[in-house]
Amino acid sequence: MEGFREINATEIENVQKLIGSDWMLITAGSMKESFNTMTASWGCMGVLWNKNVAIAYVRPQRFTYLFTEANPLMTLCFFEDDKKDALRFCGTHSGRDCDKIKETGLTPVEYEDGAVIFAEAKLALICRKLYVSDIKEEGFLDKSLLSNYPQNDYHRQYICEIIKVLKKD
Q1: How far is the C-alpha of 5 from the C-alpha of 1, rounded, in Å?
Q2: What is the DSSP letter of 150?
Q3: Which of 9, 15, 61, 115 is buried most, with the most CB atoms less than 10 Å from its CB?
Q4: Cβ of 61: how many Cβ atoms within 10 Å?
Q5: pTM for this one?
């Protein structure tokens, strides 16, 4: 893909900063049908089941949830600081109500198997879902964490194999 080169998942640096501070766009669907994207600042990367994995969390009321449920692939895209306003918009507006791509000026690009990444991303992970599970109240050992769920709208966890990592040249 023009402007990107493939790297190994082990070359991804400072995952805590990428996810927690820089934020990411979780995107599912395809350019041929339809897709949606949302901003996330919760997630993980590591090794599980002898595979490089990314774990993404999506609440069921998010429009993107419908796309993550219906598609085997999702992408996680990370951006430079100059795209923070676009990420903020994608995290505070629903694709049900507006065209996030038009509003933010981001450029979706179809990658292999229909996965959607963004031309402006500095790093894009193409991920294949391996396992899903719902976070449940009874699983919390530290009950103070329930304050993250005042509406009892617990996330669905998607454990995904990182099948390709693209880094901006």
Answers
A1: 7
A2: T
A3: 115
A4: 9
A5: 0.95
pLDDT at 1: 67
Q: Within 10 Å of residue 127's Cβ, how many Cβ atoms?
A: 27
Domains of the chain: 4-168 (2.30.110.10)
Which residues of the chain form beta strands (DSSP E)? 4-7, 24-29, 35-40, 43-48, 51-58, 73-78, 108-110, 116-118, 123-134, 156-168
CB 74 within 8 A of CB 127: yes
> In a 3-state reduction of DSSP, which class is residue 30?
coil
Interstrand relation of 24-29 and 73-78 (parallel, antiparallel or unpaired): antiparallel
Q: Which residue has the tokens 């329930």?
A: 146
Task: Encode pLDDT of 9-43 as tens digits.
Answer: 999 999 999 999 999 999 999 988 899 999 999 99
**Measured distance CA(135)–CA(162) in Å, rounded:** 22
Instruction: Write the DSSP symbol of residue 119.
Output: T
pLDDT, residue 57, reads 98
Instruction: Indicate the pairing of strand 156-168 with strand 35-40.
Output: unpaired
Phi then psi dihedrals of residue 13, to 5 deg: -105, 145
Q: What would you report as the CA-atom Rg of the chain, rounded to the nearest whole angstrom?
A: 15
In order, the DSSP letters of 95-114 are TTTS-HHHHH---EEE-GGG
